[in-house]
Design a protein that fits this description.
With 413 residues, this protein is an alpha/beta fold. Helix content is 24%, strand content 23%. Strand 18 and strand 19 form a beta hairpin. Bound molecules: flavin-adenine dinucleotide.
């Protein structure tokens, strides 16, 4: 089979790959997008049915393409996000091939550029942009052995409450996925045990404005990666049920049992760390600091925004926080299912070019690697806080497209 040549190969047909495609087209740069599944595949197959986009409709947009909506303050379903991505691909006339997986990426021998082995052909490219997503390989800690009497699933494979066997549910991990699935299951009448770790919860709305408005007004969404600090976590928020502030104490009053982090497991019994109070205090401190910052902004700019003292009220500590469990016997607690909301790692094992560090993470500056022509896009904190957000990826895409266009002709192709 003859080898196909393209100027720029984009791997991944999610928001990042599509935004870059648009930016390259605008700059007259020839390119091809390869997507192993369908456009926006992860929104189709790796999200649960009840998930709502965490950003209000008014704030959802891709470059030159706002999200169509009837209610600016509502939160989109995953299906609506898929429709939006499909409509965007049509709008930008993206040169995309779906159902094609890039299985290996190598340097061209004796010439600049790259060779991509794919599931149906070999492609040579002067530039390659890896846009395969910030959440790639589900992490499941090796704590509980596979056991037919216990249903275990990662959050990326959880779909809906009825998928789970009857009984109580243990959710390990209190990031956005763990907290949101826990709330969904409590509302479905399940008893939920939620293992809570360190988190940065923020208000959904404050003084009449949504968090996303505040992040922009305070310039926080533009925080450069250099100023990120050691905490890599993104804000803990939800768009479900009309969007509200996540408050673990309130969850407990609705019937959820909060636990510390799972430290170890032996024969169906979990050892729990004595850190639940610390984790909640960390989340509360992040929340209060945000309100302080917002109040200071209002005062500094003399804004006419009603005060909201109720936002600072803290519900009383629930019994599970006053006397936290240190051990949990799954069988005795009636737990029939465990949901691992324990995050994701990257999987760049198919990249055979020396741009990965010892842990397999790409080494780059704002997505530009030391390997001329090889780029990454869409990763968490690629250049700034909103780099991996739908409405934030456009800036990085424009910057990389400028870099690619600027290099055009500088390398053989
Ligand atoms: C539960 C959950 C909720 C989220 N909610 C929000 C939210 O409300 N707002 C928000 O902005 N972000 C949210 N995110 C983050 C969101 O997933 C990302 O912002 C978004 O999907 C990233 O887009 P992307 O294009 O960078 O990557 P992806 O959407 O992951 O797209 C990458 C694409 O690459 C394809 N691919 C991977 N490997 C290959 C290969 N080797 N060859 C060919 N194709 C390949 C995949 O099939 C996929 O379609 C959420 C994430 C999760 C897990």
């Amino acid at each position: 089979m003859p080898i196909e040549h393209v100027e720029t190969l984009i791997v991944g047909g999610g928001q990042a790959g599509l935004a870059l495609s648009h930016m390259l087209s605008q700059r007259g740069c020839q390119h091809l997008v390869l997507e192993r599944g369908r456009i926006g595949e992860r929104w189709r197959t790796e999200r649960w049915d009840g998930l709502r986009f965490q950003f209000p409709n008014w704030s959802v947009q891709l470059p030159d393409f706002p999200f169509p909506h009837a209610d600016p303050d509502a939160f989109a379903t995953s299906a609506e996000i898929v429709d939006f991505l499909n409509a965007y691909a049509d709008f930008i006339a993206a040169p995309i091939r779906c159902g094609v997986t890039v299985t290996a990426l190598l340097r061209r021998e004796g010439a600049s550029g790259f060779v991509a082995e794919t599931s149906n052909a070999t492609i040579e490219a002067a530039n390659v942009v890896v846009a395969t997503g910030p959440y790639q390989r589900p992490i499941i800690p090796a704590l509980l052995p596979e056991d037919a009497s216990l249903f275990q699933v990662h959050a990326s494979r959880y779909r809906e409450p009825d998928q789970l066997p009857p009984g109580a549910v243990l959710i390990v991990g209190s990031g956005a996925s763990g907290a949101q699935i826990a709330e969904e299951l409590v509302r479905a009448g399940r008893h939920v045990y939620l293992s809570v770790g360190r988190h940065r919860r923020l208000p959904r709305r404050y003084r009449g404005r949504d968090l996303i408005w505040w992040l922009s007004a305070l310039g926080l969404d533009q925080t450069p990666v250099e100023n990120r600090g050691p905490d890599k976590s993104l804000p803990l928020i939800t768009g479900a049920y009309g969007g509200h502030t996540i408050d673990f104490r309130r969850f407990a009053t609705q019937g959820m049992t909060l636990l510390g982090r799972v430290e170890a497991a032996r024969e169906g019994t979990l050892d729990l760390a004595p850190d639940l109070a610390d984790s909640l205090a960390f989340g509360d401190a992040a929340y209060a600091a945000f309100l302080d910052r917002a109040d200071a902004h209002v005062a500094r700019h003399g804004l006419d925004m009603p005060e909201e003292p109720g936002a600072r009220s803290v519900p009383p500590d629930p019994p599970c926080l006053v006397e936290p469990l240190r051990r949990l016997e799954l069988h005795a607690a009636g737990i029939g299912a465990v949901i691992w909301a324990t995050g994701y790692s990257c999987d760049f094992s198919w990249i055979d070019v020396p741009v990965l560090d010892a842990s397999g993470e790409p080494v780059h500056r704002g997505g530009i690697t030391d390997e001329p022509g090889l780029y990454f896009l869409g990763l968490q904190w690629l250049s700034k806080m909103n780099s991996s957000f739908l409405a934030g990826v456009g800036d990085d895409a424009a910057r990389l497209a400028d870099h690619i266009a600027g290099q055009k002709g500088g390398r053989g192709r």
